[in-house]
Write the structure tokens for this entry.
Amino acid sequence: MSEPEAPPLLPVTDDHDTGPLFEAAARGELVVRVCACGEVSHLPTSYCRRCGSSEGTWRPVSGRATLLSWTTVTHQLHPAFPTPYTIVLVSLEEHPQVHMFGQLAGTPDLTADQPMEVWFQQLAEDVAIPQWRPAG
Amino acid sequence: MFRKVQRQGPAAGRVAGVSAELYDHRDRCAIVGIGATEFSKDSGRSTLTLAVEASLEAIGDAGLVPIDIDGIVRCDMDDVRTSDLIHTLGLDNISYLGENGPGGVAPAAMVGQAVAAILSGQATAVLVYRSLNGRSGRRYGAASQASDAPRVGGNGTYDEYWLPYGLQTPGQCFALMARRHMIDFGTTPDQLGRIPIACRNRANANPAAQMHGRPMGLDDYLGARMISDPLRLFDFCLETDGANALVVTTAERARDLPRPPALIRAVAQASLPDVQPGNFYSVLMRESLTTLPAAPVGRLLFERAGLGPDDIDVAQLYDCFSITVLLQLEDYGFCAKGEGGSFVADGSIELDGSIPINTAGGHLSEGYIHGMNHIVEGVRQIRGTSTNQVPGAETCLVTSTALPPGSALILRGDG
């Protein structure tokens, strides 16, 4: 695997509906949006589709998950992502309907439904994102 | 603060809840003209020029002249605006303009809009077109964001949830679905490969197909380079410069026109519960990774048509990727969920199988006109003019259903 030929792709971190995920990641915490009615909103929307409230809060979760699927990318496209690299899709332990992506270097040995754990990758001085790796 | 709504949760959403009786369109309209340009890697022409050629061919094939066209429907991703085509073709009687999408979801839904316009009295003859320089111009398989771009995501795209992780292309997205199908159901690469091989076999009998003259067997398929595992090179569709067009009118008028009408038995589009907001990749945020909106589209379509999977003689299934076909075979009920692998391995999708598919070669081997070439081939099957004609084909399912929402239609002969 070679070094990236471009700086990392930075996410918008101050969006009205998704910003708190990145604020929490910057302090090393994984959060999901939960409505007062108990509905977990992911992908998050301010308006709760279940009860109509906009009074949701962002709550910490354990950062434990299971591996739903993965793909090792071997066709080079984006200079920020030298191949091979592996995209993982995980399902959170407390809220299995919440799916999140992560990236692992190279071609790791993975097994369906194996335990995964969150870590936080600092992409820039003010930008961190949740990442996922096999639970140690 | 919004008004509180009374709802029992997302599962309360109706699926195929629109009664067939409430939308009386069965066999009332027909596709009477089809047009196609050459499919190539570099057309050397503008998308407008391609759209003009395909449209003139479709209008002429219908036995009409441009001034007879009073409705026009565009795909939201087409570079050709309706006004470009209206101006250039001299369509001076336009009284209905429609648009549908996103992208590959559009074609059957565009025909559905034409039908709705005709049955509601807004138009009598509607032109439906799709034109793209998909190889020499805008390539849909390119990475989603240039390297020197500012930050990605926000503003309702939710791109911040996937682009920073290197999830950049539709192929990677479908690879994640294919992997889960293999995990849950034991589907194998050998089985998946039967889909591109079937499409290639059809293309080799279709001189207009981009992959005509390039036979492919299982060793060729398995030996091709991996792109995003478990998907290999030939699990990916082609990139094509080209255009297609259709003319839709009433069944009554169709019977006075030169070609045998391809009656539109039924058309449907549908979303699904838990559809998710955001761009494209949010499909992987849904609970199931192995169903597509084809499932609710299929239920509504078959209800409206008064038909079921067993009544379909031939199908043109949207095949941006091999796995897309496998999932649709299950979602439309040609086989049970999870049995798609063994179903295709048994030869079911070959010309002599229970449901021959993509008889011009499909997106995998004919060309990629974003679902529109599938409708054109469907019409050929009903007319009996396909280069891979299914003997006695009276019904053809055509799908435009990769990601949510979705659309599909059923064509039948006027017999």
Chain B has twelve helices and eleven strands. Chain B touches chain A through 54 residues (CB under 8 Å).
